[in-house]
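Hi R.,

As promised on Friday, here is the backbone we talked about, encoded as structure tokens. Could you run it through your design pipeline when you get a chance and send me back a sequence?
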């Protein structure tokens, strides 16, 4: 196994990780932004107000995008395991 192969595997793993986590990050960011705008408009300065809506939105995103996330991770792992004999030999 060459150093370039190890770097390529690491790069692919980071790409898959970012791809799978992107829907959750976008949902949390959008929810936080909307709650912040609401707090600024109503002058409610409660720091814990954004936790429950973010938790609910992330849970809904996990339910909606969960099958796609599992499929993406499974495909990556299958490709990685199928490539092991070629990397060793």
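Update: got your reply. Pasting your designed sequence below so it's all in one thread:
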């Amino acid at each position: 196994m060459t150093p370039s192969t190890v770097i390529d595997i690491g790069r692919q793993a980071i790409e898959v990780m970012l791809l799978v986590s992107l829907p959750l990050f976008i949902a949390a960011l959008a929810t936080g932004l909307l709650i912040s705008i609401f707090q600024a408009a109503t002058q409610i300065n409660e720091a814990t107000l954004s936790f429950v809506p973010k938790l609910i939105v992330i849970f809904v995103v996990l339910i909606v995008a969960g099958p796609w996330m599992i499929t993406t991770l499974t495909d990556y792992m299958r490709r990685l395991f199928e490539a092991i004999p070629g990397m060793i030999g």
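One thing I noticed while checking it: The chain has a mean pLDDT of 92.

Thanks again,
M.
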